[in-house]
Amino acid sequence: MIKKILRELNEFKLPSVLTPICMIGEVIAEMIIPILMGNIVDKGINGGSLDYIIRTGLIMILVALFGLLAGLGGAYFGAKASTGLARNLRKKMFDNIQTFSFSNIDKFSSSGLVTRLTTDVTNIQNSYQMILRMAMRAPASMIIAMVMSFIISPRLASIYLLAVFFLALVMLFIMKTAGKYFKEVFEKYDRLNESVQENVSAIRVVKAYVREEYENNKFKIAALNIYEMFVKAEKTVTLVSPIMMGTVYACILLISWFGAHMIVSNELTTGAMMSLLTYCMNILMSLMMLSMIFVMITMSEASARRIAEVIDEKTSLGNPKKPVMEVKDGSIRFDHASFSYNKDSKDPVLKDINVDIKAGETVGIIGGTGTGKSSLVNLISRLYDVTSGAVYVGGVDVREYDMDTLRQQVSVVLQKNVLFSGTIYENLRWGDENATDEEVQRACKLACADEFIEKMPDGYNTYIEQGGTNVSGGQRQRLCIARALLKKPKILILDDSTSAVDTATDAKIRKAFAEEIPGTTKIIIAQRISSVQDCDRIIVMEDGRVNGFGSHEELLENNQIYREVYESQVGASGDADFDEKE
Amino acid sequence: MAEQVKVVKGPGGRGQRGMPRPKIENPGKLFMRLMSYVFRKYAIHMILVVICIVLSVIANVQGTMFTKSLIDTYITPMIGQTNPDYSPLAHAIMRVVLFYALGVLAAFVQARLMIYVGQGTLKDLRQELFTHMESLPIKYFDTHAHGDIMSIYTNDIDTLRQMISQSIPQLLNSAITIVSVFVSMIVLSVPLTIVTVIMVALMLFVSAKATGASGKNFVAQQKNIGELNGYIEEMMTGQKVVKVFCHEEKAIERFDELNEMLYQSAFKANTYSNILGPINTQLGNLSYVVCAIFGGALALNSYFGFTVGGLASFLTFNKSFSMPINQVSMQFNSIIMALAGADRIFKLLDEQPETDDGYVMLVNAKEENGEIVESNEFTGHWAWKHYHKAEGTTTYQPMEGDVTFNDVDFGYSDDKMVLHNIVLHALPGQKVALVGSTGAGKTTITNLINRFYDIQDGKIRYDNININKIKKEDLRRSLGMVLQDTHLFTGTVAENIRYGKLDATDEEVVAAAKLANADGFIKRLPNGYDTMLTGDGANLSQGQRQLLAIARAAIANPPVLILDEATSSIDTRTEKIVQDGMDKLMHGRTTFVIAHRLSTVKNSDCIVVLEQGRIVEMGTHDELMELKKRYYQLYTGNKPEMVSA
């Protein structure tokens, strides 16, 4: 997993290597300076030589300069490597997400992807920087200190070895327990934040039902739970520093005791013992840093895993080896097509669909919530693959097409549609980036969007806010239709795309379609009979199956569901939620 | 709802997410306020923490002194002795063991205490934030991006946690060390202390410079993060549309641009904050050298009575003086970040909560001897309990559901009215349908009845009581709402329905679900009524979510209903059955419907046609058809005979 993350370093490998090298340089300076300081005191001051003090002082300044340079280098390269890794990770994920199929997207959910691209990457960036700047520095300084100690006195230095061994064991144990607790805490913590999120977006419901107190109590309990768990987790971590301090103190005392014996029996000089004690502190600091690195790694592990998941996700729909690059015509044929979102599901969403639609035909689809209308049309542009059977467009199995080619020719206006921040022109040119102003305007005319656009102060240059919040539902739907039209597709699919458009405009759009793009196969999913009744043929969906397929008249005659729906809707041809004054 | 947001936000709305975070106005005051939170409940903890820190500093000093005296006092005298006596050394070590044990214990206790202080303060802050947030008026939520509110709970609280549990003890420790070392230095030598202080001032100056440069870059980084995150959010939400339009490459292109910009500024910001450490360390070393040379010159010439031994001690202090200052400057950035977070937290806490001057209450009532009396039990009848201050009497008035709008003007901001001269009278049990284009003010009218927003002019009366006199809770309890956007909560289906009436029995839940026609699909869910809903009911279809919202309103059994486009995405077959249930629910209740289809409007007692915030037509279906104006045109799809104004 960590390997996968590091694979994205690319051009930042060099700074990633240079950072620890610089840090080692800094450590070396750090090791030399205490010796020089000691010399200043021992030989210079106690020896009464101002000359010596100045000479050693100058050397020390030189070493400090060297340390400064190394430190600055470490700072620079560390920042470069970590922010660069973050940049590459974001890019790799974003690029891969662009290859995702609908079912890949469903799996992660858009908010899940946002977190991975933002928070998780930041976590990795911070810990990578920390690790680069500390991970080499700490062991390096520890090893140098250890080696020096062994040179001075192997017998006394073995005390350190024991201590380090003991500390490593204790640390490992604590980190493991704490890691488990922290994982639990952060999961709970996420859920707490989700509930806040829920309250923020559903504040109207909370207030309408006067449930502020209820929500407060719920939150208070959750916050208390989090508190208790955090306390539990942190308690284990707080053991680290006292244990470490205790061990180091024990080392100092042991060295003092045994060292004293050795000095007395002339096996050790007093200066050497002082150095040993200094190195003891060095070892302690390094261990502290190592334990911090440990914590960082455990904390960013979850983020690394989540990022790796996105990078590793293979699109569930791939292009075939020899893709068909041209869609001959707009005919569609479902051949025993079955589909379910979940492979293990016993109850498929679509069951054995057999439908034949001719090129240029206008087909309506009607049916209750969850009867599989959207799933059916999603198979046509291969947004999902059938579980069994096949779907043919222009006589060719959709799985044999180049996906871009197929989707250029099959234009879908999704039920949950979105506009992006940008002008109307920019939004519509998603359909065809080379479309001239006139072409855009013509598409808008077809979609009956021209009237309201022209009434806007900036017309086609009106800026659409993120999510299209500054246009009404009906206006948004018409813009989305215009955008789809600009593709000049062979098949146009409207998935409940005029639900917020008033009946008269709805009829006008359909009329324009019939007159202006007669060759295009049009599939219209709708709730209103009036939206589909003049289609060539209408599919009635019920429980994932085709319940009826025929013209309005035929269905009225022989399809009970269709008749019921029709009867419930007659007598109210108008729509209360019209968009604006025509 | 969209139009409200736009109106309040004004033209500056776009790109607000990407704006650099505002500078903190008064960091000192902010810090003090934060500390007052910590000390409010944890004063004793904090005092103990300070004591512990002092103890560990003392233990540490004792330890350092021991290593210094170890050689001179204990070892050197023993050298050369044939039969050295180790007992003085053993005693000394025993004494130091005690000090060390005390130090370790103090460190342990301090760390433990800080958990309670840190986590406890965060818990209190979280709870206070949430409780306060729940008390804020709807306007707050309509005018603040939900993402920004969320980031207070996530990012800001998190940085604060770091500050309280790490930076503050560190600061205390450093402060105590600095003071004690400073005093010792002055005692040893005033001139050398001055030299040291000058060097420290230099260090602080460099730190401030670097922090300033780093701060500027952090602002740039923050801005780029905002832009990139905004883009990511937009693209991820619209990812399916991107796919449908084969727009992947375009999406990547723009992403690359923003990603590169963020990389550049993040790189700079990080570099600047990284260099602080090495610069200060080496400046510390420089300070040491300068002191050594200067002090050496003093000591060797015996100026100011300064001795060689004194110089050796002074140099140790010099080292232990620059260390904590270094640490403080390292903590500086994280403290600034945490204070910026604290600033946002306090801003939310300082928001004015919804005010409620209402005193008329809604109570269960029953009739005794022709008089209405209050009842503690659910009677199915409601009465307004009206306390008259002037006379000191309390009267009860049956709750009937009569709603009048008397010349009401309203705007989300004072300078732009969205409703003008609304005059409306709904008699008890009547069904009033609001019809009009998006932005005509239908939703706004319903927002006024329950006082999500307060009107600027005119009066709204409920059973002839000015709604401003009714306690908000009771007013809202008397109004059932099914809102345009269905929101469900994490929990089971049954819990979600029970939201309307917390003490509802299972039978009541099922009955309500049946009324809303939700029972059928609920039974087919994997765990029926116990199926968990997560992420705002993401595992349900839009129609099913709305059915649940209707069931939730049904179980609350309110006297007045507001149905805000409740049936907009339920398919026609389901809608018909839901409509039956709704009609049952509406029976005997005053209902305001913002209808989606004219079929649901036709049988209304009163149809109100709104246009640009004004009522243009009002009457029954037949009356309006007779009028042959706007409604007629809508209903028939024909051009009106007379052009409406």
Written description of the protein model:
The complex is a heterodimer of chains A (582) and B (645). By secondary structure, chain A is an alpha/beta fold. Chain A has 21 helices and 12 strands. Chain A has helices spanning 2-6, 13-45, 50-98, 102-108, 110-135, 137-152, 154-201, 203-208, 212-238, 240-264, 270-312, 373-378, 403-409, 424-428, 437-446, 450-455, 473-485, 503-516, 529-532, 552-558, 560-569; strands at 332-339, 350-357, 362-367, 388-393, 396-397, 410-413, 422-423, 463-464, 491-495, 521-525, 537-542, 545-550. In chain B, helix 2 (27-78) packs antiparallel against helix 3, helix 6 (190-237) packs antiparallel against helix 8 (248-300) and helix 13 packs across helix 15 (542-556). By secondary structure, chain B is of the alpha/beta class. The longest helix of chain B is centred in the middle third of the chain and has 53 residues, at 248-300. Chains A and B meet through helix 2, helix 3, helix 5, helix 7 and helix 8 of A and helix 1, helix 2, helix 3, helix 5 and helix 6 of B.
